Amino acid sequence: MDVNSPRKWDKNYEQGTDGWDLGKPTPVFKRLTLRASRQLVPGRMIVLGAGRGYDAREFARHGFQVTAVDFSSRAVSEMHRLAEAEAPMEILQHDIFTLSEALNHSFDYVLEYTCFCAIDPKRRAEYADLVARLLKPNGLYIDLAFPLDGRKGGPPFAVSTLELLDLFQARGFTLISREKPADSISTRRNAEELFLFQKAVTEIDQRTE
Ligand SMILES: C[S@@+](CC[C@H](N)C(=O)[O-])C[C@H]1O[C@@H](n2cnc3c(N)ncnc32)[C@H](O)[C@@H]1O
């Protein structure tokens, strides 16, 4: 089935073929939310392809103003079911590629985990344009890039760190940090890498006329 169609993802949720779902936030993002690390100051965050919303809720619990987006009605109903009063967040059922231009330059953070590898690889430049337009100047793109194992086919489609660097540096982003997290879940250790990219103050327009 077509990865561009929400029905494909609805089916995965309905049939329990949702092996990406950790049932909890990744320990990598949990660490980023800790006040002690002082790495990220709470701000406005959008989570792309949020699934059941474990990561989104973790940031919301720590004072981030979170918008969680997914185009699967199943994922969205799960986010509503799992919602926590003490971790309020906005839940949007929407295709990330057609998010309203009213959201442009609205977010301090864009967060991604297993969404980039879920979209059609031919749409990766379009995806990078989307991240660039959603972020405020100086905003951060937080990407826990997975899977880095060069697998064939998908989803999940393989992610290459060189491709990521090319996509975002071409749009004026600066690589702030990258690490192979020691606290990845055991089955993904060494198959994922955490990237923090900062958007430039002046936007580079990649569109061709
Ligand atoms: C592999 S799952 C990951 C979910 C979540 N990030 C997690 O780690 O559990 C990919 C998610 O992205 C969503 N998705 C894929 N393409 C999308 C698109 N174009 N717009 C919005 N959501 C999309 C799917 O519905 C699915 O919930």
Question: What does this protein look like?
Answer:
This protein is α/β, with parallel strands linked by helices. 26% of the residues lie in helices and 22% in strands. It contains 6 helices and 7 strands, in the order H-H-E-H-E-H-E-E-H-E-H-E-E. The chain has a 7-stranded mixed β-sheet with strand order 3-2-1-4-5-7-6, with helices on both faces. Strand 1 (44-48), helix 3 and strand 2 form a beta-alpha-beta unit. It is globular, with a radius of gyration of 16 Å. The termini are far apart. The mean pLDDT is 95. The protein binds S-adenosylmethionine. The site of S-adenosylmethionine (SAM) has 19 residues, from strand 2.
Name the descriptors.
binds S-adenosylmethionine; 209 residues; alpha/beta; globular; seven-stranded mixed beta sheet; 26% helix; 6 helices
Describe what is shown at a glance.
The chain is an alpha/beta fold and 209 residues long.
- Heteromolecules bound: S-adenosylmethionine
Percent of residues in beta strands? 15-25%
Specify the number of helices: 6
Distance between the termini: 32 Å
Largest sheet: 7 strands, mixed
Helix/strand order: HHEHEHEEHEHEE
Helical fraction equals 25-40%
Rg calc: 16 Å
Low-pLDDT windows of residues: none
Overall structural class, as computed from helix and strand content, comes to alpha/beta
Mean model confidence by pLDDT: 95
